[in-house]
Design brief:
This protein is mainly alpha-helical. The protein starts with 5 loop residues before the first helix and ends in a 6-residue tail after the last helix. Helix 3 runs parallel beside helix 5. It has 5 helices and no strands. It is about 80% helix and about 0% strand.
């Protein structure tokens, strides 16, 4: 008969307590830096997504003469870029150190985000959003 081991489940979810003060300090530093980085990147991506929707309502539709389902295509193309970028990003982490790869992808994502302000037609947004999906795949988990 199987017995429910409450302590084992708790260890699985929370993890075992560090045995030394040095290990406890190291785990706190790792948790602090990795979690703060991931939260910041997720928040900036969320802002980018909501800003595209806000721009569409606030005049981008008229400025770029958008009609029909073009706004939905922008989001769909971003998702396609995200899917295409997942595997190469994870493979690159085997070659390039994450401390270099993650900031580089964030810089590329930022440059592409800023370049959205210079578009003249909706097709340019399609291209930018596709390529923006690739760098987002390295830190965004759906």
């Amino acid at each position: 008969m199987l017995r429910w081991n409450v302590g084992g489940c708790l260890d699985l979810v929370v993890g075992k307590k560090p045995s030394t003060a040095q290990e406890r300090t190291l785990l706190a530093k790792i948790d602090w830096f990795i979690l703060s980085y991931c939260c910041l990147m997720y928040f900036s991506n969320y802002l980018d997504r909501s800003n595209v929707a806000n721009a569409y309502v606030s005049g981008m539709r008229e400025d770029l003469q958008m009609f029909g389902t073009q706004f939905n295509k922008i989001n769909t193309i971003f998702t396609c870029g995200y899917i295409v970028g997942m595997i190469p990003n994870n493979l690159m982490l085997q070659i390039v150190a994450p401390r270099i790869w993650f900031p580089c992808m964030q810089i590329i994502w930022g440059v592409l985000t800023f370049s959205t302000s210079a578009v003249k037609n909706v097709e340019q947004i399609y291209v930018i959003r596709f390529f923006q999906g690739g760098p987002c795949a390295e830190y965004l988990f759906r």
